[in-house]
Amino acid sequence: MDEFEIIRRYFASRYPQRADVVLGVGDDGALTRLDADQQLVSATDSLVAGTHFSGELPADAIAHRSLAANLSDLAAMGAEPRWFLLALSLPEADAGWLQAFSRGLIALAEHHRVALIGGDTVRGPLAVTVTALGSVPAGHALRRDGANPGDAIYVSGSCGDAAWAWRALAGGQALPEDDPLYRRFAYPEPRVAEGCALRDLASAAIDISDGLHVDLERLLAASGAGAVCRADDLPLSSALLDRGGEESARYLALAGGDDYELCFTVPSARESQLLDLVAGWDCSVSRLGEVVTGRGLQWRLRGEPMSSPRPAFAHF
Ligand code: ADP
Ligand code: MG
């Protein structure tokens, strides 16, 4: 199989079709249509074997995570995902692997109705770079820099599950395919609908890919504010608590990463509106604390200050 055969077989058909794609895979570039009152939101994320996942992770999960990480970035901007590009570096053209990879990609693309409009296919160490493109009504994107003192801080879903699974796998432990924590690592569900719904309600948002503590710190730094939060109120799944107890769960939730949940702030006067909104969501939200004037993110546990959790993962 040469490059063109790979593209033809696995990346040129069976993906969702969209009316706003004028020209997709096959030419030098893709042509897409965007309404005049909308802004384009672009995000890209690379997953590299050995750094972000083990090469033993099933190919469909590698595909799922690559697209999910990018859809999560769009969700954090309040964007509706539309299209994506795929740059794939492969050590060899293994038909079984490519079949499973494209199956995983198509399944998540179908779920969110995003069209694959192009990419690049090269030989090299296993690495997957997805670029996701979406849209927001002009001026209505969620950003990191909009939080104000007095705003309440929320996080969606639960935190720490994926980090537990990643550590277990990295330590050589085999996890059953239906283990809920393994599924949160291998097949994360980006909060796409939730991000769009928060568009005119949240004052700031970020997705937590590196860990709740550092990502919330980034939101606060961008907003020029600080925060006081209660670690007692961290959303910890019962599956995670069962594995290692409360202290370890709390650490993984704060410092673990790979959660792809949304952390966002809401003006206090609009919190009741948020609660009405989330009543219809598949995932819960948890209120962690408040934005304050000044700098820094302070966690408290049972009323006592906690030392800042050191991140488990650094890019360099
Ligand atoms: P060029 O040399 O002009 O960059 P390529 O031979 O790299 O073109 O790719 C041919 C077409 O296939 C282009 O439209 C490109 O976007 C698309 N393509 C290449 N690799 C992939 C991939 N992994 N997934 C989706 N589309 C791809
Ligand atoms: Mg090319």
Characteristic terms for this protein:
binds adenosine-5'-diphosphate, seven-stranded mixed beta sheet, 316 residues, binds magnesium ion, four-stranded mixed beta sheet, 9 helices, alpha+beta
Structure description:
With 316 residues, this protein is of the alpha+beta class. It has helices at residues 3-11, 59-76, 95-112, 161-170, 180-186, 192-197, 212-223, 238-255, 271-278; strands spanning 21-23, 31-32, 38-48, 80-90, 115-123, 127-137, 152-156, 204-208, 226-230, 261-266, 285-292, 296-301, 304-306. The protein contains nine helices and 13 strands. It has a seven-stranded mixed sheet, with helices on both faces. A four-stranded mixed sheet has the order 3-6-4-5. The chain has a two-stranded antiparallel ribbon with strand order 1-2. The longest helix has 18 residues, at 59-76. The protein is globular and about 60 Å long. The two termini are 36 Å apart. The model has no long low-confidence stretch (mean pLDDT 96). Bound molecules: adenosine-5'-diphosphate and magnesium ion. Residues 7, 11, 25-28, 86, 88, 116, 118-121 line the site of adenosine-5'-diphosphate.
